[in-house]
């Protein structure tokens, strides 16, 4: 433009320039909002620092602690017999959101612990209770902590470990990293990581789908986004982990019964105090880090572990309930099937059935055999191992080898391990509708294998249980080290018995018993009716009017005289 020339009028702003101006402002606002949200989100994901025990703002130290090599402290409590006189020394590892005080063995009879000579130490896992947090915690580290705790407490070259739920999961780490220090291990409903690489995808998907949606998301966050675990379990927008929130839907009917038995004897303040112990130092270093470790990426899974006791100088037992709604029983069964050295015990129960109170082993056909082990002589130190078969209308608890003190003393002197079973349909053993004379002998053989009784074992039976011993001698003689038959029941129709002897013996029976035996032999389908009808006298043993001899009465008096009426 030439000098002196006047400028034209300014152009008014167009719609486009106005839009670009507004758009620019919106972009700036969006950037500010994103930055603000990111800053808020970052701060929300940062857990507060733990309130370490012994620090000015932390909880006080009330129980003994040992100092590890890295400077951390592990808190513990002891129970059972004194350590220096104990026959066995055990370390208990507690479950999720619990502490050293929640120990299922703590409720055991003091007399039983003394009789077994067991010393138990229960620890607070890192970040729980009064144990220092471990910010570098891994799947392996707690196993090494346990080893160091055992050394500092002077538990000797070998000790037992047992754990419940997430504590049971840690026992896998002990079996992997410190097997040379273990005398044995017990896993009670151990937590399962759904991302263990040896688990079949179809089984994990099926088990995972049965979890509550909130728990599925919690496990996903812990596995894929562990840095988000604190926020996920402290936010209020979505449901967080049901175990943390105390959702009752995760508890089965059996769980509620067990919990009520454990908590009913306690005062409300005592229950509140015990629940508070797990999170004394904050939630992140206890329960949140627990989730990240338990469901994060593992260096191994249980099916990678080799037999820790190849010389049979120890054993591993895994206990599981079929109604567990937190830990999937299907995955537990699969793991146990892959590891032949694991003794798997599944506790089964139905809502309308009697509760299961004693251990059971699962047979190949799916049935369960219930049993009790004598506390007189532990299996791993016994010179002889014996299976006892109870009599008619009795159970595994009716064991003449353990009922009287003099007999018990002899058993201890001879170092005999005795296990008594409930026969099929009795006590807590599943019925066997296909039961035959042969089948129980085969059950006994399989039972012995599952309990690792060795290539040969003794069998003993009383009355109808003694009759079963004949089946063992017939069908599994190669597995027997010896046999004892105490007044074994006789079948009057055994074909090699002389008829004159059977007729004479049969005629001496009460008339009602003669008819009961005839019905059982010739009309077995009528047995139930015969023994429940009220027109004629039924089997005398069933109706409680057997023809006992004076010596029988004397023996019974001695057996039951030491028991109180409730026990009888």
Automatic annotation (TrEMBL):
Keyword Transmembrane helix: yes
Chain ranges passing through the membrane: 21-42
Record keywords: Membrane, Transmembrane, Transmembrane helix
Domain spans labelled AB hydrolase-1: 116-220, 418-518
Species annotation: Mikania micrantha
Annotated GO MF terms: hydrolase activity
Name the record gives this protein: AB hydrolase-1 domain-containing protein
């Amino acid at each position: 433009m030439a000098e002196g020339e006047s400028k034209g009028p300014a152009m008014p702003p167009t719609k486009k320039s106005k839009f670009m101006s507004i758009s620019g402002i919106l972009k700036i606002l969006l950037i500010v909002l994103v930055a603000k949200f990111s800053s808020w989100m970052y701060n929300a994901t940062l857990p507060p620092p733990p309130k370490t025990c012994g620090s000015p703002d932390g909880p006080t130290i009330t129980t003994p602690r040992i100092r590890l090599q890295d400077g951390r402290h592990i808190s513990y409590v002891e129970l059972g017999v004194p350590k220096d006189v104990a026959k066995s020394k055990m370390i208990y590892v507690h479950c999720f959101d619990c502490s050293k005080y929640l120990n299922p063995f703590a409720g055991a009879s003091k007399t039983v612990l003394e009789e077994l000579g067991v010393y138990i130490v229960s620890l607070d896992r890192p970040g729980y209770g009064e144990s220092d947090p471990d910010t570098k915690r891994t799947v392996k580290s707690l196993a090494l902590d346990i080893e160091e705790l055992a050394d500092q407490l002077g538990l000797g070259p070998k000790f037992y470990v047992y754990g419940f739920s997430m504590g049971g999961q840690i026992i896998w780490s002990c079996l992997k990293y410190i097997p040379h220090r273990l005398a044995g291990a017990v896993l009670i409903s151990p937590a399962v990581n759904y991302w263990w690489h040896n688990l079949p995808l179809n089984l994990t998907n099926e088990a995972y789908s049965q979890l509550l949606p909130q728990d599925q998301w919690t496990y996903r966050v812990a596995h894929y986004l562990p840095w988000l675990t604190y926020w996920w379990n402290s936010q209020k927008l979505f449901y967080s982990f049901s175990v943390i929130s105390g959702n009752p839907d995760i508890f089965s009917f059996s769980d509620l019964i067990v919990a009520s038995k454990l908590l009913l004897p306690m005062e409300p303040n005592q229950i509140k105090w015990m629940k508070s112990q797990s999170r004394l130092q904050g939630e992140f270093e206890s329960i949140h880090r627990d989730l990240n470790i338990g469901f994060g990426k593992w260096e191994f899974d249980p099916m990678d572990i080799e037999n820790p006791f190849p010389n049979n100088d120890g054993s591993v037992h895994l206990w599981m309930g079929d109604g567990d709604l937190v830990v999937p029983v299907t995955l537990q069964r699969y793991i146990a099937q892959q590891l032949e050295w694991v003794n798997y015990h599944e506790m089964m129960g139905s809502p309308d059935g009697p509760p299961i109170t004693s251990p059971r082993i699962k047979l190949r056909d799916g049935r369960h055999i219930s049993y009790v082990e004598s506390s007189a002589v532990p299996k791993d130190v016994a010179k002889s191992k014996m299976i006892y078969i109870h009599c008619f209308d009795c159970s595994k608890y009716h064991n003449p080898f353990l009922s009287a003190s003099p007999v018990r003393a002899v058993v201890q002197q001879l170092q005999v391990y005795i296990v008594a079973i409930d026969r099929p349909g009795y006590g807590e053993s599943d019925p066997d509708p296909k039961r035959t004379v042969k089948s129980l002998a085969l059950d006994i053989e399989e039972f012995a294998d599952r309990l690792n009784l060795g290539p040969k074992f003794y069998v003993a039976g009383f009355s109808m249980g003694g009759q079963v011993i004949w089946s063992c001698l017939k069908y599994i003689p190669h597995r027997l080290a010896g046999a004892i038959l105490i007044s074994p029941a006789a079948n009057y129709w055994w074909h090699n018995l002389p008829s004159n002897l059977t007729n004479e013996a049969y005629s001496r029976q009460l008339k009602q018993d003669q008819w009961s035996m005839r019905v059982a032999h010739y009309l077995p389908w009528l047995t139930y009716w015969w023994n429940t009808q009220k027109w004629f006298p039924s089997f005398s043993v069933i109706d409680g009017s057997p023809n006992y001899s004076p010596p029988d009465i004397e023996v019974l008096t001695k057996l039951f005289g030491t028991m109180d009426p409730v026990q009888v």
